[in-house]
Amino acid sequence: MAHGENQHDELALGWEEWLALPDLGLPALKAKIDTGARTSALHAFNIEPFGTASKPRVRFVIQPIPGRDDLEVICSADVIDRRDVTSSNGESELRYVVRTNMQIGDHKRPIEITLTDRANMAYRMLLGRQALGDDIVVNPSESFIQPKLSYDLYKSSQRPAAAKRPLRIAILTREPDNYSTGRLIEEGERRDHVVETIDTSRCYMNIRTLAPEIHYDGKKLPHYDAVIPRIGASITAYGTAVVRQFETIGTYCVNGSEAITASRDKLYAHQLLARYKIGMPTTAFASSPKDTKNLVTLAGSTPLIVKLLESTQGKGVVLAETPKAAESVISAFRGLKADFLVQHFVKEAAGEDVRCMVIGGKVVSSIKRTAAAGEFRSNLHQGGTAAKVKITKEERETAVRAAKAMGLNFAGVDLLRSHDGPKVLEVNSSPGLEGMEKASKLNVAGKVYDHIEKSVRPAAPRRKS
């Protein structure tokens, strides 16, 4: 609503009133109306600037109910100014000034608010005369002339949907210039979020009970609303440790550390798929050189796939056409002291697989990948091609169940089309966006942010005593 739209309707207020700041996700605040104060003030702590010099923002935490420090709401807003404000006790303080919509009853208008710690005040908000305008009349002998609200609105069952606000988001990656990272940055900034890339390998951690921290390039990292892990296979162990630290300090991680670890350990991943009765190619594993022939027999007749547990993008995956070839490959892998799986080769897939992008428990897009001539691996990094494909209900359900089995909110699930239904080949915790977006013409990065915006809760870092 434009400023002044309700100016023809005079609004009467008492010296205290209920109001809402809906754009900040605050549905009910009890405010003192103070015509002696020029500026309005809102209770805030953990005040943290972020954003760019051309578009500065501030994030802060508020405990909206006096005497209740167990309920905290994170708010963020554009900064319009910083100014010195002199309080009633004569002390001057440099405060951030934000503009947001205020609603009292049916009356709504944009107002300017300064941010300051009012923890010891009876009212979380003070409404000054600058916010009142000419159309508001204050009767200092009355209170709560306008409709009363209730702090019950902060209960999860009754609370309205969280207000959209600019988020501070970190992408954990060692490849800040690749397509996927670029698209996640581009889409995040298009939605008014602040997106920063962090080199996972340059993070280090202060692990302690009361205030665990993550440091980067000599400085403590700020609080992020969400983290998008893009952990490379070569640093899975350290990368998941960093994600675990973010989880410890209360940051929402799109994919959690345990889920990433499960998907990267191909043996454990296949065991999880088996536990949840999700179709996959027959798979065998052993560690003793004496078991080579039995291992081949367990996996079925040749041809067979021999796959390193740490393989990614089709690397470390070998097709053995005959039993002799399979034994030779297995012996070679064992000579390297490498862990591997032996897997039945699904001939009818004919060098094709289906990549399903699962985000937030739904398949948002799918493509069919076809291997290059003379190649059995359909990975795009191995020269495969991709095209949009329509999947069956069974394939959709299998992909969703596979991502759920790993605990992944953002996953690329690779399926083979066999005679007896879809078979899960792999569940990828850092799926690339380029092939999927270009082939499907879908804004997959946008789907990631849809999930983040829906999932980031109004929880806050605990206030330091």
Automatic annotation (TrEMBL):
Pfam families: RimK (PF08443), Rimk_N (PF18030), Zn_protease (PF05618). GO terms for molecular function: ligase activity. Residues 270-453 form the ATP-grasp domain. Its cofactor is Mg(2+); Mn(2+). PROSITE patterns: ATP_GRASP. The keyword Nucleotide-binding applies. Signal peptide: none annotated. The keyword Zinc-finger does not apply. Coiled coil: none annotated. Keywords: ATP-binding, Ligase, Magnesium, Manganese, Metal-binding, Nucleotide-binding, Protein biosynthesis. It comes from the Bacteria. This is Alpha-L-glutamate ligase. The gene is rimK.
